TrEMBL record:
UniProt-listed InterPro entries: Actin_Cytoskeleton_Reg
Organism: Arion vulgaris
Coiled coil spans: 33-170, 195-261
Protein name, per record: Uncharacterized protein
Top-level lineage group: Eukaryota
Gene Ontology molecular-function annotations: actin filament binding
Amino acid sequence: DSQPPLPNQPPPDSVDGMVDSLVAPLTEMAQPVKTHMDQVELLRKEKEEALAEEIRNTKAALDAVRTAYEEELSKEKAKYKEALLTMYTEEYVNEIRLRHQEEEEKMSEELQKLNMHYTSKCEDYKLLEMKLQQIKQDYESHITQLSTSNNHLEEMLNQEIDRLKEFIKKKPSLASLTTGSATMEEELYDAKIMVRVKDAELQKLRSQVKNLENSLHRTTEEQRQTMTQYMQCVKTSGEAKKQFQEQIAQLTERLNKVLGSQGLKANIKRKWTSAANLKAPSFH
């Protein structure tokens, strides 16, 4: 019988041996990866523990700072309260109140003086206005009388002139005078005397007219001066009123700052409303 040929190499021992030969390299490669992962996990745990420790330390430090701040704040509050109790004693408050009262009284006196001064000026201006109105009425009446008298004198003068003209027209001729009677001579003599008398009366009337013209001129000049004084008084009144109102406002503001109380401010405003709203004379 024939025999099969013999193999050159012996067959493998088993299948397991082949698997082991294939897995062994993979196992060798996985070992460093596992080691690396273990190291990463270890580092993560260390970092978490360090972070937790840092958080605990920070919280403790913050608690310590807050506690120290609260203690310091409590001490400062206590010192401030003690200082207030020491500073703002009843004697100190009474002194401040007395000082404010003195300042208020001083300002009130100044306001009263200003009020009296302004009221006096207003009364003076009212009297001056009444006097001016009376003077104007007197001047107007006097001017009317002068004008009436002047017209009457002028009318009388015109009548006398007309009478003289009429007499001259009716006088007799020279021939009749030489041959006339004594009655005509007497009439002519009387006429001459009358002419002289009328001429004297005319001169007197002219003198009266001149005097009336001078009186009218003086009256007009006095009225002009009176009107000038009146305008100056009006200007002075406006300036005094403006200055008084400014002083009232300044003193009231200062007084309100000193008092610092709304109720007192209202009282002061009510007290001096009448002074601030005093109506000056119109002069119109």
